[in-house]
Amino acid sequence: MRRGRLLILVGLIILLAVIVVVFVLPQMTGSDGGGGAINGGGEELPRAQEIIPTATPIPMVQIVVAVQELPRGIRIPAENAVQLRNWPAESAPFNALQNVDDVIGKIARIDIPREAPVLSTYLVDNLQELTQRGRVGSDAAAVMPPGLEAISMPMDRLTGVAYALREGDYVDVILSMLFVDVDEEFNSILPNAVTLVSIDDKGNMAPAAPVDGRLDVGIGGAPVFVSPSEPQRPRLMTQRTVQSAWVLRVGDFPIEGSYIGATPTPLPTPTPAAAEGQAPAEDRPPAAPTPKPAPDIITLAVSPQDALVLVWAIESHIPITLALRSATDISQVPTQPVTLEYMMSTFNMTVPDRLPYALEPPLRSIRQVLLRDITLNQSESAVPR
C-alpha cells in the first residue's frame, strides 16, 4: 500500500516537471524549443539576422616619397631616390608631387629625410635659385617686427635694470651728457694756453712758457694773468631719447643663429666610482650648479632713425641707461632735459649760505656708490673671520 502511494507521488513529480519544461519555460524565455522567437500571443516570430559592420576603406592617393636621405643641394638621381607611395588622402600635403618625373633632375632646396613626402617647395631648378630661395636667415630677423632694426649695446647690472630685462620687454633709453666750453676755432676745451712774447731791443721775439688762463686788469690797472685753479667742470644733462624700444635679446645670440624652440636635453654626465671611504653617488648631495656669467650686452629693435641715435651714443661713449616699461604701456611721453638749473627750480633748491663754521672732516665730495665697491664689500663680509 505504501509502495503504491510512493509510486503515485513520484509520477506526479515527473508530470509536474514535464509541464514546467514544455509549457512554462518557453513562455519565460520567449522562445520555443526550436529557437524561434515567441510573441505575447504564443506565435513564432521570424529570427532577426545578425548585422556585421563593414570597414570603410580609407581614400588613398599616390605621392612621391624619398626612399633615401636627400641632402640639400643634391640633384635628384633617377634611380633609388624617390618612389610613388600610397598616402592617406586626408593627410597628404597639398603641394605633394604625384609624378616622379617632376622630381628627377631637380635640386633639393633643403635636407629631405627618408620616407618623407617630396613637396614642390623642396625643389629648385638651378643653383642660383637654390641660393636665393634656400636662404633661411637668422631667428632674430624672423621674429623682429617689420620696420625695425636691431642694435646691440653694452649693459651691466646698473644700466640693465639689475638684469630684470627679458626678451619681449619694452624699454626707454636714457642718455647722460657732459657739456664743456670750447674754443670755436680750435674746438678745444677752454681756457686756451696763452704764451707771452717779449721783444728785445734788436727786435727778437722771446716767447715765454705757455700758461692756461686769460689776461685781465688787476688792482691799480696793472695787467695780470688769471689762471684756473682746476680743469673746467663739465655740465651734466640727462634726457630720455628712444622710447618703447623692443628687447630682442639679452646676452649673446647663439653662433649658429637659431635660438627659438626647445632646448636640447644635455647628456647625462657619467658619475665616477666612489673612492674607498666615500658615500655612494646616490647618497651624496648634488653638486652646486655652475653659475652662468651675467649678460653684458643687450639687443634692441628700434626704428631706423632711433638706430642712428643709439649708434651715435655708443660711438660717443655716452653712458646709456635702460628704463623698463610696463608690459601694457608703450606710449610716447614727452620729457624735459634734466640739468642743474632744472633740479634747482623744479625741486625748489637753493644755494646754501656761507657760514662762519663748517663740518670736520671737510666735506669735499658726495659719496659715490660703485658696483665694484658693493661687490667687494659683500665678498669681504661673507668671508668668516
Descriptive overview:
Among the domains are: 60-133, Alpha-Beta Complex (Type Iii Antifreeze Protein Isoform Hplc 12); 138-180 and 234-255 and 294-352, no CATH class; 182-193 and 213-228, no CATH class. The chain is elongated, with a radius of gyration of 47 Å. Strand 10 and strand 11 form a beta hairpin. It starts with a helix and ends with a helix. The strands form 7 sheets. Strands 7, 8, 15, 16, 17 and 18 form a 6-stranded antiparallel sheet that branches. The protein has a two-stranded antiparallel sheet with strand order 1-2. The protein has a two-stranded antiparallel ribbon with strand order 3-4. With 385 residues, the chain is an alpha+beta fold. The protein contains 6 helices and 18 strands.
**In one word, what is the shape?**
elongated
State the major sheet.
6 strands, antiparallel
Query: Which value, in Å, is the CA radius of gyration?
Result: 47 Å
Number of helices: 6
Portion of residues within helices: 10-25%
Count of beta strands = 18
Task: Give the SSE order as H and E letters.
Answer: HEEEEEEHHEEEEEEEEEEEHEHH
Q: What portion of residues belong to β-strands?
A: 15-25%
**Category by helix and strand content:** alpha+beta
N- to C-terminal distance: 122 Å
